[in-house]
Write a structure and sequence with these properties.
The complex is a heterotetramer of chains A (about 120), B (about 100), C (about 475) and D (about 625). Chain B has three helices and no strands. Chain B is mainly α. In chain B, helix 1 runs antiparallel to helix 2 and helix 2 packs antiparallel against helix 3. Chain B is elongated, with a radius of gyration of 17 Å. The mean pLDDT of chain B is about 85. Chain C contains 19 helices and two strands. Chain C has a two-stranded antiparallel ribbon with strand order 1-2. In chain C, helix 2 packs antiparallel against helix 3 and helix 16 packs antiparallel against helix 17. Chain D has 27 helices and two strands. Chain D has a two-stranded antiparallel ribbon. Chain D is globular and about 85 Å long. Chain D starts with 5 loop residues before the first helix and ends with a helix. The chains are: A mainly alpha (about 120), B mainly alpha (about 100), C mainly alpha (about 475), D mainly alpha (about 625). Chains B and D meet through helix 1 of B and helix 25, helix 26 and helix 27 of D.
């Protein structure tokens, strides 16, 4: 009975292992520079201590918008994932088209230079 | 445990009404957009409630589409707010008064 | 578990595919090609539109549904395909020079136009509330962006944001209405089956259905700019780029009326009395307020906005009539309206000259002497909008009011005729200004570009031809409304 | 169709040519007076020739000639487009073509040097197009279209001197007021087509004659169509536009308001005479309205001082007279002849009167015939003679055309069981003669001192502003006068041939001497009265009506009809609708928000909520309406 969950266990182990390996590797291989900004918690350019009614740079909104749009499209991947098998090739092709359209959006955003920070 | 349909509907209507009131009384356009999101989510809740009651799946499918569309709408809305903010340094609905009767 | 993939025929959504592919292509080209080599987007769009029209023509005469009953294949939808394709084509024609003046001849403009067109077609053909909603939003979101196209122009921004907030608000209502209908019918979202399901569940779910109906009315009322949901119209029409205003006034109206008519005719036979009564009131209010307020306007775009509200009122009259002639007149009138209104906006673009400098109606003074042909064209459009024979506007109004009389709504017809009388005043004022007033100042030359000239020729000739030979279009329309057995 | 019918070709040609003349001038040549004139006059001459040729060729016609194609609007609704050539339309066709040709000729002189010369001729061509189209159209919809075009071109012509405020106002008034009647007309058409399914004039008439219409259908349709006639033919109570319409150039007045445009209404009545006469109710209404119009306009004509105003009111009264004749004939089962005959003769003499007035106005630069008289109007020989001929005809004096046609109408009135109508008709004839000859006598027997002393005398010396025109009347203006005067003298004796042409047979009835004597007596009485008041040596130069100042003032104020409409427009239309809405826009919304803003800041959330700009007010409104709809749907019934 519990053996049914063996793949899950395996999957978890692999995931944890992978994360651990990557963290360790970056610790050993990566170049280390320490700046004030970089050492702040979350590493995101925000001051962790201070007034909460802080004004954000407008660029955050732009990035946030892209994130919302691309992220929310993933919603359609879940139902597909659930019935991936019965849908077969048809579903795969459909999803490929769907993702292709998303990629077009990404290419467009990229090509327009909207991903440049400056 | 089965949640009765009218619980869903009651909550949904309440959420929707809250959203409407929020849209009507808040001045900040960002908050107005959030309230509109709330209205859409109330609709989602209603759909899910009905889908659950009827054991029909199309209500849930509808929810997916509503969510994506709402995201797109908000993205456009945010972009417009940003554009307006760059011009006039305001995000308040009552400052949108160039176009008048 | 196995899932039966429903059979479907890609060619039945051929026009959509063509336009979508063209739009995606434009987006890619726009992002990837270096600056300065982007002049071919209008041509590309026109080709795509022509192909889509051709595909529609091939589809003509089919009936039934496809894609697991999601999509209607019928002449009603196809007629609307043709109308919105016509509207988009004309918009593309009048856009180019105008956009160049503003420095905004962008690829996305055309891509968004095409996407919006696809959305409109979806609305006209949908047999499923999800499809309807998707079509509505594809169209609306594209137009929100287009309305705010001139990012540097505060009015354009404001128009877009107002439209977005109001539009999102109203689509939330529409959605809530759909949810109620879904509940009232025990989990049905197919438009074609709504009527039967509503009837089945009637005694139990009457309040739910009625609430759904009310919410749908609000949602659609907003999209067609019916009073009292019209308040966005003048602001948005004034602030949006003129070419987009033209597109909105014809395309959105056509698509919204297509969906509106289909739902009302097909889904609510059980509540005929209620929605007739409500729409009766809305129609009267819409016509009257639109026309009366238009008299007071001095900005031509605002005036045309109120006139577009008034025309929505006439169309609502046809909807209330709800007989075969009524349905026919909706289709016919939207075709006529597309021609005459885009034409009028084309003239507005021309007269507006550099960056919409001259939008006051008094800037039209003396146009008849400086540019007789242009003034003549504008007069044709004004006559047509006012419903003066022998233009298409007259025949359309004749159908509409005849339909109302036929359905027994004599008073509605009388009010309609009185309203069109009032409208003559402000339309003819433009003509009078053009021919009977000397120009107040020299406003500078008017740049006639091939696209605009072509659009004006098409609209002008179309307005007159459709008016003089309505028979053919009428027959097409009759063939299209055969699908509503209740009429 | 193997060979095209020559008449069809001719009719089409005349319309197409007129339209292209309008288009050509308007688009290309309006800057060049000579060229425009050439185009317009050529086209007009061709139309004239076509009209007369058709008339002569078809004069022996037995059956009406219908040359039409169906314009299909829908399965049930077929609208015929084409030409219906029967005696009525042929006669009118000729009249219209002739008069518009004469007026184009006359205008060469009258409009010479006007800055809008080309435009003027373009409008005249448009007018000819629409009027000719109206006359020979075979279907009511085509007629309606031309009817509206007539309205449009008259609007353009009346407001021709647009820089003159009163002129553009008058143009607008004419257009709006006649449209008012047209709503009725249009509704009548819709009513007919929906209940009967055709708009073909011939089939409507024959159906009416064979009693195919139920009365409930017939009477409303007839009355609705009559609304249009009231507007176009300036019948009470929407006659108010016509006197104002005199603001246009005088040849235009002659063209529009004597022979053609206003006659269009009566022409329609004639055209649908069999249809109308099937509804006694409608005919009685028509008779009443026309009688009121006759008396009203005659009495106003008695006190007007502008020569064109007098002719304008006489036009209205004569139109009323025609209407009475037709209605009476309809009620007694008579023929359309009397009214239509009067229409014919009236076209001739009224055009004549207006053109004469135009000569005087052109010469003296004034519209006031008292001033004209003081400046020596009687020295202009040709117009003075011709205006007298016209006036005699208008008054109904033997042997001029008006006598015969009035006689015919009075005979119809005589046949009515109620003799009151006859009495009112005679009273109208008396008044007509009176005000007509008031003008003539004032012109003939000038009294410079009566028009404010020295002013008139000074003008006497200096009236020629150094222009050569004072030496006489240009021939282009004189020729039409003479031709029209000729018509006026001759037409009366053509009664029998015209009757034969119109009805196919001559109805001789024994001359009714009582009627004859009383009619002539009334006319002569009117002239005599005018002589006593204005002509005779010791006359006081004031109308007999002066003795009752209240009534005189009532007439001078035109029965307060203008006041009524002004009030109606201001209060009801502008006040109630436009103002409310525009006021809302500008004041209530802005002002309300301002008031709140300036008001107490501390009064809390409720007020600040109203303050939150337009966007949310709109939204709130939507929600409220939704609430209303919901309540209606759920609670209603």
């Amino acid at each position: 009975m519990l053996t049914n969950y063996l793949p899950v266990l395996l999957y978890m182990l692999i995931a944890i292992g992978l994360v651990g390996v990557i963290v360790l590797l970056s610790e050993f291989l990566g170049k280390k520079t320490h700046t004030y900004q970089k050492d702040l918690p979350y590493e995101c350019g925000m001051d962790p201590i201070g007034d909460a009614r802080h004004r954000y740079a407008v660029r955050f909104y732009v990035i946030a918008m892209f994130f919302i749009v691309f992220d929310i499209e993933a919603i359609f991947l879940y139902p597909w994932g659930v019935i991936f098998k019965p849908l077969g090739w048809f579903g795969l092709v459909e999803m490929a088209i769907f993702i292709f359209i998303l990629v077009v959006g990404l290419v467009y955003v990229w090509g327009k230079g909207a991903l440049e920070w400056e | 445990m089965v949640v009765p349909l009218h619980y869903y509907l009651g909550l949904s209507v309440a959420l929707f009404a809250l959203g409407v009131v929020g849209v009507l009384i808040r001045r900040n356009i960002l908050v107005i957009l959030m309230c509109i999101e709330m209205m859409l989510n109330a609709v989602n809740l209603a759909f899910i409630g009905f889908a659950d009651a009827f054991k029909a799946v199309d209500g849930q499918t509808f929810v997916f589409f509503v969510m994506t569309v709402a995201a797109a709408e908000v993205a456009v809305g945010l972009a417009l707010v940003v554009a307006i903010f760059r011009h006039r340094a305001t995000v308040y609905a009552d400052d949108l008064n160039i176009l008048k009767w | 578990m196995t899932i039966a993939i429903p059979t479907f025929n890609l060619s039945s959504i051929g026009p959509w595919l063509t336009l979508t592919v063209a739009a995606i292509l434009i987006l890619l080209l726009d992002a990837l090609s270096p600056k300065g080599r982007k002049a071919y987007f209008p041509q590309l769009s026109l080709i795509a539109l022509a192909v889509a029209a051709l595909q529609t023509w091939w589809l003509w005469g089919q009936s039934g549904t496809d894609f697991a009953r999601m999509v209607f294949l019928d002449n009603f939808a196809f007629y609307f395909y043709l109308i919105v394709i016509l509207g988009t084509t004309l918009t593309v024609l009048i856009s180019r020079h105008y956009l160049e003046e503003w420095g905004k001849n962008l690829g996305e403009y055309y891509a968004l136009l095409l996407f919006a067109t696809v959305g409109m077609m979806l609305m006209a053909a949908s047999n499923h509330l999800i499809m309807l909603f998707l079509g509505l939003e594809i169209m609306s979101i594209a137009i929100y962006v287009l309305a705010g196209l001139f990012r540097e122009d505060a009015r354009s921004n404001e128009a877009a944001l107002k439209y977005l907030v109001l539009g999102a608000f109203s689509s939330a209502f529409l959605l809530f209405g759909m949810a109620f209908l879904y509940g009232a019918t025990g989990g049905n979202l197919f438009i074609g089956e709504l009527a039967g399901k509503i009837k089945e569940a009637l005694p139990l779910t009457k309040p739910l259905t009625l609430l759904g109906l009310a919410l749908l009315l609000v949602g659609f009322g907003f999209k067609v700019a019916s009073v009292p949901f019209h308040m966005w119209t003048p602001d948005v029409y004034e602030g949006a780029p003129t070419s987009i205003t033209a597109f909105m006034s014809v395309g959105v109206k056509a698509a919204a009326f297509a969906a509106f008519a289909r739902i009302m005719f097909a889904a609510f036979p059980a509540f005929v009395l209620e929605w007739h009564m409500l729409l009766w009131v809305l129609a009267v209010a819409t016509m009257t307020i639109g026309n009366v307020v238009a008299i007071a306007q001095t900005n031509i775009k605002r005036m045309l906005a109120y006139s577009s509200i008034a025309h929505a009122g006439y169309l609502l009259v046809a909807l209330v009539a709800a007989n075969q002639l009524g349905a026919v007149s909706i289709i016919y009138y939207l075709l006529a309206y597309t021609l005459m209104n885009v034409g009028a906006f084309g003239v507005v673009i021309l007269v507006g000259r550099k960056k919409d400098s001259y939008l006051n109606i008094y800037d039209y003074a003396g146009l008849g002497f400086q540019h007789p042909v242009l003034a003549a064209a504008m007069s044709v459009f004004m006559f047509a909008l006012a419903g003066i024979p022998p233009t298409a506007g007259f025949v359309g109004k004749f159908y509409i009011f005849s339909a109302a009389v036929q359905a027994g709504y004599i008073w509605l017809a009388i009010i309609g005729v009185m309203n069109s009388l009032v409208s003559v005043f402000y339309y003819l004022r433009i003509t009078v200004l053009m021919y009977m007033r000397p120009a107040e100042a020299d406003l500078g030359p008017i740049a006639f570009t091939p696209g605009l000239v072509a659009a004006l020729i098409i609209t002008c000739a179309g307005t007159i031809l459709v008016g003089v030979f309505p028979g053919w279009f009428y027959d097409l329309a009759v063939a299209s409304v055969k699908i509503f057995p209740a009429l | 169709m193997g060979s095209v019918n020559p008449f069809f070709l001719g009719c089409t040609l005349s319309l197409v040519l007129s339209l292209s003349a309008f288009g050509l001038i308007m688009i290309f040549t309006w800057r060049r007076p000579k060229l425009s004139l050439a185009i317009s006059l050529t086209v007009s001459t061709i139309c004239l020739i076509i009209a007369w040729l058709t008339f002569i060729k078809l004069s022996a016609l037995k059956e009406p000639l219908i040359l039409s194609v169906d314009w299909m609007m829908s399965d049930q609704i077929r609208v015929p487009f084409g030409f219906l050539l029967d005696p009525t339309s042929l006669l009118m066709f000729v009249i219209v073509a002739t008069i518009s040709w004469l007026i184009q000729l006359y205008s060469i002189g009258y409009m010479a040097g006007d800055s809008g010369f080309g435009r003027y001729y373009a409008f005249l061509s448009l007018f000819a197009l629409s009027m000719l189209g109206l006359v020979i159209s075979s279907g009511l919809l085509q007629l309606y279209i031309c009817w509206e075009l007539v309205g449009l071109s008259s609007y353009l012509l009346i407001g021709f001197w647009y820089e003159k405020f009163s002129a553009s106002e008058a143009g607008k008034k004419a257009f709006v007021v006649t449209r008012f009647g047209d709503i009725g007309f249009f509704m009548g058409l819709a009513f007919l087509v929906l209940n009967f399914g055709t708009l073909d004039i011939h089939s409507i008439n024959s159906a009416a004659m064979s009693k195919a219409f139920p009365a409930w259908l017939l009477t409303p349709a007839a009355l609705l169509i009559f609304c249009g006639i009231m507007g176009k033919s300036a019948q009470f109570p929407i006659h108010v536009w016509l006197p104002d319409a005199m603001e246009g150039p005088t040849p235009v007045s002659a063209l529009l308001h004597s022979a053609t445009m206003v006659a269009a209404g009566m022409y329609l009545l004639t055209r649908l005479f069999p249809f109308f006469s099937c509804s006694p109710t409608a005919m009685t209404v028509i008779l009443t309205i026309c009688t009121i119009t006759l008396l009203l306009s005659s009495t106003i004509g008695m006190v007007a001082t502008d020569i064109k105003q007098v002719w304008a009111y006489s036009t209205i009264s004569q139109l009323g007279f025609m209407g009475m004749g037709l209605a009476a004939a309809g009620l007694t089962g008579g023929y359309l002849f009397a009214g239509f005959y009067h229409l014919t003769t009236h076209a001739g003499f009224k055009a004549l009167l207006f053109l004469c007035a135009g000569v005087f106005i052109h010469h003296f630069h004034t519209n006031d015939f008292f001033v004209m008289s003081a400046k020596g109007g009687r020295r202009l020989l040709i117009p003075m003679v011709t205006v007298t001929i016209g006036a005699l005809a208008l008054a109904g004096i033997f042997p001029f055309s008006g006598f015969f046609s009035k006689e015919a109408i009075l005979a119809e009135l005589w046949n009515l069981p109620n003799k009151m109508w006859l009495g009112l008709g005679l009273l109208g004839a008396f008044l007509t003669a009176y005000y007509t000859f008031r003008v003539i006598f004032v012109l003939l027997f000038p009294r410079p001192q009566a028009v404010g002393g020295g002013h008139g005398v000074e003008e006497e010396h200096g009236h020629g502003h150094g222009q050569e025109e004072e030496h006489g009347v240009p021939w282009v203006m004189a020729v039409p006068l003479i031709i029209l005067a000729g018509f006026t003298c001759v037409l009366g004796f053509l009664q029998a041939p015209i009757q034969k042409f119109l009805l196919g047979e001559v109805h001789h009835h024994a001359p009714n001497y009582v009627l004859l004597v009383s009619a002539v007596g009334c006319a002569l009485g009117g002239i005599g009265m005018a002589w006593l008041d204005w002509g005779a040596k010791g006359a006081k130069w004031e109308g007999f009506i002066r003795k009752v100042p209240v009534v005189e003032n009532f007439f001078i104020q035109k029965w307060y009809m203008d006041h009524f409409w002004r009030w109606f427009l201001n209060t009801v239309i502008y006040g109630l609708f436009s103002r409310t809405f525009t006021y809302n826009d500008r004041r209530v919304v802005d002002g309300g928000v301002d008031a709140v803003a300036f008001g107490t800041i501390g009064s809390g959330r409720l007020l600040s909520f109203i303050q939150t700009a337009f966007l949310q007010l709109n939204l709130l409104f939507m929600v409220l309406v939704l609430g209303g709809i919901g309540i209606y749907l759920l609670m209603g019934r």
